[in-house]
Amino acid sequence: MPSAKELVNKFNDMKTLPHVAIRLTKMISSESTTMQDFEEVIKLDPILVVRLLKLVNSPFFGLANKVDSIAKAVVFIGMKNLRNLVAVEAIRDLYNNKSGEQGFSRQILWMHSATVAILAQMIGQRIFALDDEDIFLAGIIHDIGLIVEDQLVSEQLRVACDMFYQDDKSLVECENEVIGTNHSKIGGLLCREWKLSEEVLDAVKSHSGSTKKFAIPSIPSILHIAEYLACKMKYGPLPDYQIPLQSYLVPHVKDMMPEYKILVKALPGEMKKAKELYGPIEKTV
Prior knowledge:
The protein is mostly helical and about 280 residues long. Helix content is about 65%, strand content about 0%.
């Protein structure tokens, strides 16, 4: 059975992610990168240029004058918004690349990831007054490990999914038994390679099957609540997929139940905004 590290190495060797996205991710983490460096790399990807200019000129930023240069756009949206845009653009094709059978579908997984990202950002802003773009980033990439498994050990992943439906085990437990590792470990390793923050790394590593307690609020605890709500609303990573709310989060959610109900009602409007910023966020199955 391959280890998580071996799968990540094979995934990287396949050069599945666009080279521009990989370069930009490394540049964003470097303090020595200049604005000219960003412009030179971004202009290599015409689709990314269109997305960037669309984002900066959207009502979200409300600028009086239209921005038509890459350098100015990067200044206005900031590094974290740029990183989120790059992340969405880089992985979108991965989720549309292949439809699975036996319950697993990359399109369903993309819808789940987008929903969790939007819910997590809403929870951060509306429940905890946190405007941290890392929250959205953690949501959009939290299940990237499942894409790696589908790319490299597709048959074993589907056996694990079948086992999940048949046995009283978590998906992570089924993955460990069939594949020898799981998507949370794989995702955590990718976060480490991409030099993402420790909070994002912890959130991705612990979002599924972990009993570790995190501060309320923190990115890991917010991500877990967002995934719990997404699954309740039938936007799980697999059909009819549900996860329990971790016990340490139950008192908080009960205390804030009226606020969470309002948040859930506002989700369709927020998903529409996200669609305008990042492109199609909808079911394609």
